[in-house]
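Hey, quick one: can you model this chain's 3D structure?
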Amino acid sequence: MTTETAAVETQSTDENEELEPLTVEGLYRAGVHLGHLSKRWHPRMRDYIRLKHKKRHVLDMDKTIEAIENAKSAVREIVAGGGKCLMVGTKPQARNEIERLATSVGAHYITSRWLGGTLTNFATISRRIEALIQLEEDFAKGEVQAHTKRELLMKQTEVRRLNKFFGGIKEITKLPDVIYVVGIDREKHAVKEAKDLGIPVVAIVDTNCDPNNITYPIPGNDDSHASIKLLSSHIAAAISEGIELAAERQREREAMQAEREAQDAAMAAARAAAEERAKQDS
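Sure thing. Here's the predicted structure for all 282 residues.
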């Protein structure tokens, strides 16, 4: 079974929870519209703000719906083209949800702490991941070399520590093709590294953030668990749809290839028959 197929099947088993439709009412219920105090706003968020209420900015949910649809379309096409998404959310309100959603659709994720160079120094990060995988394999095979119980405990602690940082990207083999970020004020290093490498960034952008650094900004509350859950679930759905679309395109390519091969075989058989008849006539 391919990784893509497994991801789709994993997603299908996790769909008991119905995806909340993108409606203004639904976004209001989740508190997506609630921005920060107006004194903390970023002027570049002006176009996304609808009004100020009780010293707090309120975001325009019509623009949020438009933005997330654009972001979903981009993510879907990137994944459908064979790309991989890295989901990043280390703030407490986001960690569990990002891990759950990323796992359900076979995406990579980081929920502990962004280590500098995760993208820009990918070769070094890859070596650390390889060390983690090797340690885990040694433990699984009972081949861990430890002269004392203390040494063994230290190796077990090292596995837990490495899993804390790299558990969500253990299967990563190349740079991600798009990253999704919750809390760009906290994840500014992740955003900068992606930008430096030309990797598209999809992110929830609150009223205190600069949207200019984000390829596909989604105006919304990035502090509320309900808001994060709703918006992130739509990005996860786009990843799942992209995987399904990639599988569908692969099936179409295989069908076209089989048809071409059948046509070639038929033409070859026809040529062979014509040559045989020509021999008999002569």
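One thing worth noting: The beta strands are 34-37, 49-53, 56-59, 85-88, 108-110, 178-182, 201-205, 216-219.
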